[in-house]
Amino acid sequence: MGAQGTDVETIARLTAEINQLKKERRAVLLAHVYQRPEVQEVADFTGDSLQLAQQAAKTDADVIVFCGVHFMAESAAILAPEKTVLLPDQHAGCPMADMVTAEALVQKKKAMPDAVVVAYVNTSAAVKAECDICCTSSNALKVVASLPEDRPILFLPDRNLGDWVMKRTGRAMTLWPGYCNTHDRLTVAEVQAAREAHPEAELLVHPECQPEVVAMADFVASTTGLINYAVQSPKDSFIVATEAGVLHPLTTQAPHKHFYMASSKLICPNMKMTTLEKILWSLQDMEPRITVDAPIREKALASLERMLALA
Ligand code: SF4
Description:
Elements: H1 8-25, E1 27-32, H2 37-42, E2 45-47, H3 49-58, E3 63-67, H4 70-79, E4 84-86, H5 102-111, E5 116-120, H6 125-128, E6 133-135, H7 140-145, E7 153-156, H8 159-169, E8 174-175, H9 181-184, H10 188-197, E9 202-205, H11 211-214, E10 219-220, H12 223-232, E11 237-241, H13 247-253, E12 258-261, H14 276-285, H15 294-310
Parallel strand pairs: 1-2, 1-3, 3-4, 5-6, 5-7, 7-8, 9-10, 9-11, 11-12
Helix pairs in contact: 1-14, 3-4, 4-15
Bound molecules: iron/sulfur cluster.
């Protein structure tokens, strides 16, 4: 059982035990903003994929506890190979990342030998090793805009993010047919209903949503972009079309504003697998560890570093 639904005392006790063990292990705890609120609260850093990758690259801790999903912990292991990287629940994966394999990508590259391959960070290390440059939803526009005009582009695995990038940059791209199960299931009808219920609210949409939903938005950006926009905006009510975990930073940073989820379905089950208990166990046992074999790591690192140099 997770800490969700448990009492305040239990959360406080587990948090104190984690903080103590974190010091003993010289560990840093990184948490994605889609994590449970109590996990975000115990973290040293919270953020989106790009921010967490940057933290992993520069931390001087001995241990990185990655509260996110498998590809994120792999990226930390690629960027900081001398550190011990722990993923509190090793089954926390990303269905979108699983929609492209290195083998399938190698086959596609044979059919597009001139293409520059851009891989969203939501991919395995083996896929990153087969691409030219990575991107996140924060920097995808910048990454694609940096590519030579005379080369075709293969963008993977998120067709929705790729569609948004094509419309914003004007660059044609071949899109892998992957998608995020959580964002892609949001429908136009649900967004229309949310608009009718809250006509005064601005609609904030993540580009992993379907193009028809993205087209309805008042503002489209990565999770961090959406949070910053809502916090800084003079407006005070927003419909949120991304994973529900962002309500924690939104309501913490802008407690006087009103946030309405576009749908109750916007919950990523994999992101919710990390609990305070599992974080504590991982620090006690120093397991499960995430490692990446050296030949794959070196190639994947080059793709990540090309992205980080632009970020
Ligand atoms: S929210 Fe979507 S892209 Fe992110 S981990 Fe969950 S399934 Fe993967």
